[in-house]
Amino acid sequence: MTSISPAERARQLLALHTQSEILILPNVWDVVSAQVIAAIPGIQALATASHSIASTFGYPDGEQIPLELHLDMVRRIVQTVSLPVSMDFEAGYGNPGDTARRAIDIGVVGGNLEDGMRPLGEAVAAVHAVMEAGRTAGLDFVLNARTDAAVRANPEQSRSQVIQEVITRGLAFLEAGAPVVFVPGLVVREEIQEVSEAFGPQKLTVISVPGVSLSAHELQALGVARVSTGPFTQRVALTALQDAATALLAGGTLPASTRPLN
């Protein structure tokens, strides 16, 4: 590993969000997944998946895993790779600013923070707290401020009302200092284009949903800054594992394409 300061890693991560080429971050959940993804040519940063880390230890998603255990896994990932690492904070474990400070202490230079559809003032205050933690540590922390407006929408709302709520919350987070806004639940081209245009170029993050999402090339053309995978990369790995074991039990063999990646 090269010796690069956290401040420089943060600058590297921020620059990756502001370039015209979309940043692709297949999310990781443990040391070996981080090593495998980091070894792919073209990978320039890593992001952890809270859902996947929780599943690794047998916990359900939604801040059920103890924060100490969550941070310990992220610390192991940070110490293993030389790339900038962004951590999924979920909703901040009750204290977004303190959680960000603790993550920064272990070398994290970016993070996701869910708004959970809390009142907008509270959600904005949480963004301020995380950004202040970064400033106090002397780095340009790359907060991927998440709004759940599209995935927790009131069923009585029209889709246009949902998208307007996405835009209202996202613009508030950008104004509070977050360099990019994550909107899970955006998969339709027209909606992605509308939100991207409202936020401005290279301000929107979306998640790649298997069999549903647009390609990375299409998302880049729409001005999307970043595409991540959330728990889906772990599900890809688990699907391959279960399929291979099923084939073996049926009298077959393990796939000949299996590579010695560990």
Topology:
Blueprint: H1 6-18, E1 23-25, H2 31-38, E2 46-47, H3 50-56, H4 67-80, E3 85-88, H5 96-105, E4 110-114, H6 120-136, E5 142-146, H7 159-175, E6 180-182, H8 189-199, E7 204-207, H9 216-221, E8 226-228, H10 232-249
Parallel strand pairs: 1-8, 2-3, 3-4, 4-5, 5-6, 6-7, 7-8
Helix pairs in contact: 5-6, 7-8
In the CATH scheme, the class would be Alpha Beta
Strand % is 5-15%
CATH architecture: Alpha-Beta Barrel
Cα Rg: 18 Å
Largest sheet entry: 8 strands, parallel
Counted by DSSP, the helix tally is 10
Question: Approximately how much helix is present in the residues?
Answer: 40-55%
Report, as a whole number of angstroms, the end-to-end distance: 18 Å
The whole-number mean of residue pLDDT values reads 97
Following the backbone from N to C, one meets helices and strands in this order, namely HEHEHHEHEHEHEHEHEH
Shape: globular
Secondary structure: number of strands: 8
Which structural class should the secondary elements be placed in? Answer: alpha/beta
| Strand arrangement across the biggest beta sheet | 1-8-7-6-5-4-3-2
